[in-house]
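*** Query protein ***
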Amino acid sequence: MSAVIDHSPTDPTGHGHAGHDEHEHHGAPHGWRRWVFATNHKDIGTLYLLFAFAMLMVGGVLALLIRAELFQPGLQLVNPELFNQLTTMHGLIMVFGAIMPAFVGFANWMIPLQIGASDMAFARMNNFSFWLMIPAAIMLVTSFLLPGGAPAAGWTLYAPLTLQMGPSMDSGIFAMHILGASSIMGSINIIVTILNMRAPGMTLMKMPMFAWTWLITAYLLIAVMPVLAGAITMTLTDRHFGTSFFNPAGGGDPVMYQHIFWFFGHPEVYIMILPAFGIISQVVPAFARKKLFGYASMVYATSSIAILSFIVWAHHMFTTGMPVTGQLFFMYATMLIAVPTAVKIFNWIATMWQGSMTFETPMLFAVGFIFVFTMGGFTGLILAMAPVDIQLQDTYYVVAHFHYVLVAGSLFSMFSAVYYWAPKWTGVMYDERRGKLHFWWSLISFNVTFFPMHFLGLAGMPRRYADYPMQFADFNAVASVGAFFFGFAQVYFFVFIVLPMMRGKGEPAPQRPWEAAEGLEWEVPSPAPFHTFETPPKLDATATRIIG
C-alpha cells in the first residue's frame, strides 16, 4: 500500500473511513491525494462509479437531444449530420463510458469484500486503469468541437463511413484504444484477485454469483478487446497509411469490418449483462429469504453464455448477403444461447417461489430487471430468425430490443446494486420512500419511452433518421415525452438518494441491513473499514460467514 492512503492515528473514526466528506479534515495526504493516488479498492470503486454516472448524464443529454429532434416530423433542432453525430456519440459514451466502467466500479468495491481479500491483486495498476479513462472520455466528449464535428458513422463505426470522417474519427479511435487498455488491465486484476486471493475455504463453487459472473466477464474482455483494437487500427491505417482493408477501391471489403467488429461486439453485449446477472443473483435470495435455487446450474449457464457468445456474431449481419447455410447456422446458434439465459430466469423465479418476499427498493429493481430483461430477450429471439430480421433490420424494433436489454437490463441491475450495497459503503440507509419513487418513475417512463418503438419498427420506421413520415408522429411524441421523464428520474436519483448517502445523511446502517443477506461483505462493519481482511478470515462451511 502506498503511504498516501495510509490513515493516521489522528483519524477521528478509528477505522479510517467515515464517509465521503470527512477525508478533507485529515490533512494533506487525505485530501485530493487520497483520490488521485488511490490504491484502495473501495476508493477506486467509488471513482469508477462517479465517473460512470457523469458519463451516463452526458450520454443521456445526447439521447434527449435525439428524442427532442424526433418529437415531431420535420427538422426542429439539429441538421441530419449533427443528428448522426449525436446517435454515434450517445452509443459510444453509454457503452464504453457508462455501463462498462460502472460494472468495474461494483467489481472493485465488492469482489475483495465478497471473497475475503485484503484488496485487488495489483493496486497501482488498478489506479492506472481508472485514470486512463479520463483522457479517453475527454477525447470522446470534446470530439464535437473538432473540424467537421464528432464521428457520425454509428457506434459500430462501419466502413466506408469511417474512412470518410474528419479528424474526430482519429480522436475517437485513440479514445477507444485507451478505454480498451483500461478494460484489459481491470480484467487481469479481477481474474488474479479472484483466483489467487480468496479466503481459505472459499472454493470456486462456494463463491458468490457476482464474483463468478465477473470472473467469466473478465475472460471475455481479455478475449475480445484486442479484436476491437484490431478493427479500429485497420480503420486507422486505411485512413492514413494507404492500406485497403475495408476500401473496395483498393480491393478491400467493408463487410469484413462488420465480421471483425461483431466478433467483438456480440461478446461485448454479454460483457454488459453478465455482471448484472450476478447482482440479481445476490439480491433476489436476500429478499426472498431463500438460498439461490440451482447455484451450480447458474455457474454453468453463465459459462455457456460466454462460450456461445463467440459463435453468434453474424446474426447482426443477416442482410449483408451471406449464404443461406450461414444464415441458418447463426440463426440456430442465436436461439441456442436463449437456453442458458432462460435457465437463469427460471432459477430467479424458483428462488422467489414460496419465499418470504419483501419488496424494498433493491428487490423492486431486481424484479423490474427480470420483467424487462425477459421482454428484451423475447424480442431478441424474434430478431434471431433470419427471415423476420431481414424485415426488421435497422428499424426501431431493433432500438427497442437492445434498450430493453441494456437500459432496463444493465441499468436496473446497477440501481438494485446501489440500493443493496450502498448502506455498507456509506454507513447510512437511503430513504425507502424516495427509492420506491425512483423505481416506479424509472420503470413507467422507461416503458413509455421504448415500448412504442416496437410498433414503430414493425411499421417500418428506420433508425438513425432525423426525419420521418407523418404516420410515425404519435408514437414518437409519446417516446420523446417518456425519455425526458426517464432522464429526470436519474437526476432525482443522484440528487435525492446518492448525494445524501455520500454526505452521511440518513439513518445509521446496521452491519447487516438486510437480515437474510449472505456473504462476507455483511460480516464487516458499516461503513466498510478502509482496510478490510488484512489477515484472511476464517470461514464457516458455507464460506458465507466469518467464524472466530
About this structure: The first helix runs from residue 32 to 36. The CA atoms of residues 123 and 158 lie 37 Å apart.
